[in-house]
Design brief:
It is a single chain. The protein is mainly alpha-helical and about 240 residues long. The chain contains eleven helices and four strands, in the order E-E-H-H-H-H-H-E-E-H-H-H-H-H-H. The strands form two sheets. It has a two-stranded antiparallel sheet. A two-stranded antiparallel sheet has the order 3-4. Helix 2 crosses helix 3, helix 2 crosses helix 4 and helix 8 packs antiparallel against helix 10. The longest helix has about 40 residues. The chain is elongated, with a radius of gyration of 25 Å.
Length: about 240
């Protein structure tokens, strides 16, 4: 088995008979890349360009096609780049719940291996805790920024009728978009009696909430963790 390099396909693993070695795991990875790329709304060409910027070579549109069809394996470094471009994790791409071949033998499934929850629960637990702490810090900073900006917006809405009209139109368009998404989520056959507008209003999008908050139709309350800290009602679950 040898490794060959070309700008066309980057590193390719060739068996002794000269055939590129791909496995059912490679095919699964290719399908998952295609699914997530479609979900993100990224074309094969744009996707390849973004990956190439990170890895330095390869990833033409033809290579993207080969990868997604399971005809070309992806290296570890390229997998990291792919996950970054698709805003997902490597586990999202490589995890399976069915047996896959690795070239010589098979493994029953890869989800526990790539997810790490069963292999190293202590490492996985601390990693997720740190991620959660970072996420909460992001929430706090985002909320403080929102609170400041919406306060200014409320004052301008109250003072300038033209601003109020613009904000209300913005909210109406946001509602229309939410209704469209609600209907599209059911395809061509929504449930009988389904009221998309009522459902959208019951599950407002951030754009709808911001418009209602600015016009004081529905003031968005402080986030829950901040309220509990202010009131001193932080209690253990144990």
């Amino acid at each position: 088995m040898v490794w060959l390099y070309s700008d066309y396909a980057r590193w390719c693993c060739l068996c002794d008979d000269g055939v590129v070695k791909v496995t059912t795991l490679d095919a699964h990875i290719g399908r998952r890349i295609a699914e997530v790329r479609d979900l993100r709304g990224i074309s094969q060409e744009d996707f390849g360009n973004q990956v190439r910027e990170l890895v330095g070579a390869g990833w033409s549109r033809q290579v993207v096609w080969q990868v997604e069809k399971g005809k070309k394996p992806v290296s570890a470094s390229d997998l990291v780049a792919v996950a970054h471009v698709l805003s997902c994790t490597v586990a999202d791409i490589t995890s399976t719940t069915v047996a896959v071949s690795l070239g010589g033998g098979t493994v029953p499934r890869t989800d526990a291996i790539v997810g790490g929850e069963e292999a190293m629960p202590e490492a996985e637990g601390m990693a997720r805790f740190r991620d959660a702490a970072d996420a909460l810090a992001d929430v706090r900073h985002a909320w403080e920024r929102y609170a400041h900006l919406i306060d200014v917006a409320r004052r301008r809405v109250a003072e300038v009728p033209a601003v109020e009209r613009q904000v209300r139109r913005y909210g109406e368009k946001a509602l229309q978009e939410a209704v469209r998404q609600m209907r599209d989520s059911f395809g061509f056959r929504p449930p009988e009696g389904f009221d998309a507008e009522a459902a959208a209003k019951a599950n407002p999008t951030p754009a709808m909430l911001a418009a209602m908050d600015a016009t004081e139709a529905y003031p968005v309350p402080d986030n829950g963790w901040q309220q509990r800290l202010k009131s001193g009602r932080v209690r253990s679950r144990r």
